[in-house]
Write a structure and sequence with these properties.
The complex is a heterodimer of chains A (about 400) and B (about 300). Chain A is α/β, with parallel strands linked by helices and about 400 residues long. Chain A has 13 helices and 16 strands. Chain A has 2 domains: about 250 residues, Rossmann fold, CATH 3.40.50.970; about 140 residues, Rossmann fold (3-Layer(aba) Sandwich), CATH 3.40.50. In chain A, strands 10-12-11-14-15-16 form a 6-stranded mixed β-sheet, with helices on both faces. A 5-stranded mixed β-sheet of chain A has the order 4-5-7-6-13, sandwiched between helices. Chain A has a two-stranded antiparallel ribbon with strand order 1-8. In chain A, helix 1 crosses helix 2 and helix 3 packs parallel to helix 4. Chain A is globular and about 70 Å long. Chain B is of the alpha/beta class and about 300 residues long. Chain B has a single domain, classed as Rossmann fold, CATH 3.40.50.970. Classes of the chains: A alpha/beta (about 400), B alpha/beta (about 300). At the A-B interface, strand 3, helix 3, helix 4 and strand 9 of A face strand 1, helix 3, strand 2, helix 4 and helix 6 of B. Strand 9 of chain A pairs parallel with strand 2 of chain B, so a sheet runs across the interface. Thiamine diphosphate binds next to helix 3 and helix 5 of chain B. Iron/sulfur cluster binds next to helix 3 and helix 9 of chain B.
Chain lengths: ~400, ~300
């Protein structure tokens, strides 16, 4: 039977990894991800798993080793945060370009400067165009569930694309949360065995990886093929989500809707903020305001059409972003993409952007309430001010 | 086991002809010598950082390697091969692979001495069983002859040019071979392409080492060094004779010279034929040559002492 546990979010990652028991885990510590590496190292030391760990000398090398190991036909997982993800940046493109199904948890943390160890989404947003699938989690349960599903998604022959599972630093990573584990044998059967299509270690068929595409070569075609993997990913993500529901009872799709059926005012948000927002939705509903929440799970690929459809009945939509694009007054990344998705739609709701929580700034109920009060008056002067930095000190 | 040329020529070349390195390039000579030392019935995965060798041997959809090859980026060949070697151990342990494999990096000096230095050190410290070969042409050749940490004092490169207020590179090279040895790994050696017997002997030891091994092989580049392309082997020989590039090995901590120098020749004889040093023979720059000679003499003295202990 499924077991209920109380653990911090980093342990949720480690527990999923334990059940997957990947062949190779290269890693490098950084707060708030470190606890994942430590926990897993202990599991290796205790013989609970038989993964080979590589204690790399940097995140750049950790991702490089992940690439080497995956090209060698191994199932590979790692985890990072913030500056570590930034240091991997060059290699993220190489992992996806080589179509290596690496799975990595990224514990979201802000990027320097100033140095700040707390949560925001600027690290993973910086990597949004690196060709990785990105799945957000709201809590430890979703983190655990996403990691298990990520393996299946990444390794699917139609996809062959690395997956990043995102969890909010400290808010999820270091808070004790109650969640359900699937039985080990069920989890193992779900993720299955991995058989790579090609490998450096196929003695009978030597292969060449990362070749030079210099002289009027095929680079463009390679990138188009990579884009194809991303185009096919949503169907696979949905399919894997359905299969996962059968063994866990928990449903996963591109996003999760809360009180959306008749919602006039919708908040779009990703990550742990969804919990607070859900409560605010209930409160405003009691006051008679038709508010709803669309919690974004799949940010890459971006579920354009489905999002537009789900939001088409809304009068006004507030997009909550935990990072900025610094593009002048264009807004945060989720806002930019949501707005772009509506370009061809016949019905376009009023869109407003709330940038919140940078560097771990708290998102209390009062701020969510404030935001709802602001955007419920669609078309008012306040509403015309499209981008609001929520909870900024004067 | 004696190395017989007659037998070597019968061995299958694992780096095929038709690659696009310049005619007379020292790098391909180094690679072929090392691969001739690969034990029989052993498979191999090789990895190169970005550089001349990599771009010239893997022009898609062609490639010149008969063994598996991976290039991922410029600074991380050591980390990439660490991953491959670890995958091998993991999969072998699980019974998914039964064959015997060796792991080799062929990295330029830029990808080893400079940008790849951290990953290089990481590989050695972690003890992966891999042979790291630096084909050392003493500059970044692929991007058009820029200075590296291996470039000699006084040498011209495009980023250490000579002019009214500069006489070429203003710093001595770093001693990568000694730095590698300081990691206390089983086998480290310095070799040069003219002495194939010495290189192959060293490569055999490197492949046998139960842990990381490093071969720093001088591989002259006529484009960057500015000498006629048919003189690569001659340049390599002059480098060892002048002791700017002595041949030695450090086997389990024991230092040993592997080629006797009967008579150390003046550095000038080595430098004169190379365009990269031409400015040092012009009036006003004589002092630079003397400084380099001094540096080489000192290093040679120290090495002889280390090898005598
Ligand atoms: C991060 C990064 N910086 C710079 C480069 C450009 N680059 C490619 S190869 C190279 C120099 C290679 O020099 P070396 O390692 O000495 O090899 P060689 O070309 O001499 O064989 C440089 C600077 C790169 N590919 N990646
Ligand atoms: S430029 Fe130099 S190192 Fe590069 S291929 Fe030509 S000879 Fe070899």
């Amino acid at each position: 039977m499924a077991k209920t546990v109380a653990m911090v979010g980093t342990d949720a990652v480690a527990e999923a990894m334990r059940q997957i028991n990947p062949d190779v885990v290269p890693a490098y510590p950084i707060t708030p991800q470190t606890a994942v590496v430590e926990k897993y190292a202990q599991m290796v030391a205790d013989g609970i798993v038989d993964s080979e760990m590589i204690n790399a000398e940097s995140e750049h090398s950790a991702m490089s080793a992940a690439i080497g190991a995956a090209a060698g036909g191994a199932r590979v997982m790692t985890a990072t945060s913030s500056q570590g993800l930034a240091l991997m940046w060059e290699m993220l493109y190489i992992a996806s370009g080589m179509r290596l199904p690496v799975v990595m948890a990224n514990v979201n943390r802000s990027l320097s400067a100033p140095i700040n160890i707390h949560c925001d989404h600027s690290d993973s947003m910086g990597a949004r165009d690196s060709g990785w699938i990105q799945l957000f989690s709201e809590n430890a349960q979703e983190t655990y569930d996403n990691v298990l599903q990520a393996i299946r998604i990444a390794e699917h022959p139609d996809v062959l694309t690395p997956v990043m599972v995102l969890l909010d630093g400290f808010i999820i990573s270091h808070s004790i949360d109650r969640f359900d584990l699937i039985d080990d044998d069920v989890a193992k059967a779900f993720v299955g065995q991995y058989t790579p299509r090609n490998s450096l270690l196929d003695a009978a068929n030597p292969s060449c990886w990362g070749a030079f595409d210099g002289l009027g070569g095929y680079f463009f075609e390679f990138k188009r093929a990579q884009a194809e993997g991303m185009l096919k990913a949503p169907a696979v993500i949905r399919e894997v989500g359905k299969e996962y529901a059968e063994i866990s009872g928990r449903r996963y799709d591109y996003f999760a809707s809360y009180r959306m059926e008749d919602a006039e005012f919708v908040i779009v948000a990703a990550g742990s903020a969804a919990g607070t927002i859900r409560t605010a939705v209930d409160i405003f509903r009691e006051k008679g305001l038709r508010v709803g929440l669309l919690k974004l799970r799949m940010f890459r690929p971006f579920p354009q059409q489905e999002l537009v459809e789900a939001l088409s009945h809304a009068k006004a939509v507030a997009v909550f972003d935990r990072s900025d694009t610094f593009a002048g007054d264009l807004g945060g990344p989720i806002f930019v993409e949501t707005r772009s998705a509506f370009y061809e739609a016949e019905k376009r709701p009023q869109l407003m952007n709330f940038i919140y929580g940078l560097g771990g700034r708290d998102l209390p109920m009062s701020l969510v309430n404030q935001a709802i009060e602001m955007f419920k008056d669609a078309g008012s002067a306040e509403q015309k001010k499209r981008i609001v930095y929520l909870g900024l000190r004067d | 086991m004696a190395i017989k040329l007659k037998e070597l020529v019968r061995q299958k070349e694992l780096l095929t002809g038709g690659h696009r390195l310049c005619a007379g390039c020292g790098a391909s000579v180094a690679v072929r010598q090392v691969l001739h030392a690969l034990p029989e019935n052993v498979h191999a995965v090789t990895c190169s950082p970005t550089g001349c060798l990599e771009v010239s041997t893997t022009i898609y959809p062609y490639n010149a390697w008969r063994i598996s090859f991976i290039h991922s980026a410029f600074e991380n060949a050591a980390a990439t091969i660490s991953g491959v070697e670890t995958a091998y151990r993991a999969l072998k342990k699980k019974g998914k692979i039964s064959e015997d494999f060796r792991f080799i990096v062929f990295g330029g000096d830029g990808g080893t001495y400079d940008i790849g230095f951290q990953a290089f050190s990481g590989l050695l410290e972690r003890g992966h069983r891999a042979v790291y070969v630096c084909y050392n042409n003493e500059a970044y050749m692929n991007t058009g002859i820029q200075r590296s940490g291996a470039t000699q004092f006084g040498a011209w490169t495009t980023t250490s040019p000579h002019g009214d207020s500069s006489a070429g590179k203003g710093q001595n090279r770093k001693d990568l071979t000694a730095i590698a040895a300081a990691h206390n790994i089983p086998y480290v050696a310095q070799a040069a392409v003219h002495n194939w017997r010495d290189t192959i002997t060293k490569a055999r030891k490197a492949f046998q080492a139960d842990g990381p091994a490093v071969l720093n092989i001088l591989a002259p580049c006529h484009r960057g060094w500015r000498y006629p392309m048919e003189q690569t082997i001659e340049m390599s020989k002059l480098a060892t004779q002048s002791c700017i590039w002595p041949l030695y090995e450090v086997e389990n901590g024991t230092w040993r010279l592997t080629a006797k120098i009967k008579e150390k020749t003046p550095l000038r004889d080595y430098m004169k034929p190379q365009g990269r040093f031409a400015h040092l023979f012009k009036p006003g720059n004589e002092g630079v040559l003397d400084l380099l000679q001094e540096f080489v003499d000192e290093q040679w003295e120290r090495l002889q002492q280390q090898c005598a202990e």
